[in-house]
Amino acid sequence: MDTDVIVIGAGIVGAACAHALAQAGRRVLVLDARIGGATGAGMGHLVVMDDNPAELALSRHSMAQWRALAPRMGEDCAYSACGTLWIAANEEEMAEAERKQQRLHAHGIDSRLLDAPALTRAEPALRKDLAGALEVPGDGILYAPNAARWLLAQGGASIRVEHAKVDAIEDDGTLQLADGSRRTAPQIVLANGIEATTLCPELPIRPKKGHLLITDRYPGTVHHQLVELGYVTSAHHSDGDSVAFNVQPRPTGQLLIGSSRQFGTTDPAVEAPMLARMLQRALDYLPGLADLNAVRSWTGLRAATPDGLPLLGKHPWREKLWLAVGHEGLGVTTAPGSAHLLAALMTGAAPGFDAAPYAPRGLLEERMSAAPRVHQ
User: Fold this and answer.
1) By three-state DSSP, how is residue 214 classified?
2) 0.90 cut: is pTM over it?
3) What is the pLDDT of residue 376?
């Protein structure tokens, strides 16, 4: 097969890019080093986020695509339209829930406020002194590794996957592989998460470590994805170590518990103090967790940009190279929208929403800061 585009990375973002490009008539070769990444380590949440207008636009478009794909996805993708409950611990957070509802309503996203009694009826396992919640019924969860494989399979003969590690990108865009061979195509997409910085050190991306824990099977304990409304202020924008309450009911009956954030480390080891801090936060909201058996805990690395938005578009100076990186903790949610936007830019089509906020940025500054200084 002649190749129009090479995609580096077969995680959820790379797979979505390959799928979108194949849908646009391109013949795609996907190179995957099979070293694992955020797709396999993350929670697989599908949630509309509204920290800023660009994040809201990208997640809203992506969620619409996931809902359109869901009826055709295999059972092993574990898609569940469980919705999200944004939990308000007090009246201040309940006021934020009301503001969040107004923002979502302004963009046509359905949600409803639950007072304390309604929250107790919806999730009896939560502690009883909570103020209420905002329910976003269009959110969901899935199992991202299988969803990525499913997306690649939808390309049929238009997508070919090769298990190969890319060691370098040459000046003309040719890829050097670890086995000494080379691959080239008219366009290259870099979509390998935190590993992208090994090929493009100038990318303004840094690792953000997270812990997760999954329990044994307790069907019916929790019905919605549960996230504390303080999540945004306690974890999402923090530069230091932080934890937030986030629990999902997996289709297996297990509970997936998060979340934590740490900068400045790439050590994959589970850190007992951080895990204990994260679980204590979860226990504060779901006291009954103390009686459940944990099956496994693990960590992963998110690829975080300074402003929290992914880099989607043409690399400013590297030949043939396009970027789909820096999705932080929203790679699964925003993969289809990111891929749709990037494929449109690469093929000259109209993206359907403004691409400007996600255009690669900060690279020239990184390049200048890394360049040797000339002393006069």
Assistant:
1) strand
2) yes
3) 42
